[in-house]
Write a structure and sequence with these properties.
mainly alpha, 2 helices
Length: about 60
């Protein structure tokens, strides 16, 4: 659950930069959004692997 909360926090932290990029044309903010989205992708993949590992452990117990 800790990593899921990190995802929510990361998205919230990117909101201001997304606004600056899309509504104000700030290209540096776009770079920060792209980096944040890459971090989000990596974090999401980590969560996916963690969930799959947990499911596999439960299946092996049965």
């Amino acid at each position: 659950m800790k990593k899921f909360n990190e995802v929510k926090s990361l998205i919230a932290s990117l909101e201001a930069d997304a606004d600056k990029f899309y509504n104000k044309g700030n290209s540096a903010a776009g770079t920060r959004v792209r980096k944040g989205m890459q971090d989000l992708k990596n974090l999401a993949q980590s969560i996916r692997l963690e969930v799959q590992e947990s499911k596999n452990k439960e299946t092996a117990k049965k």
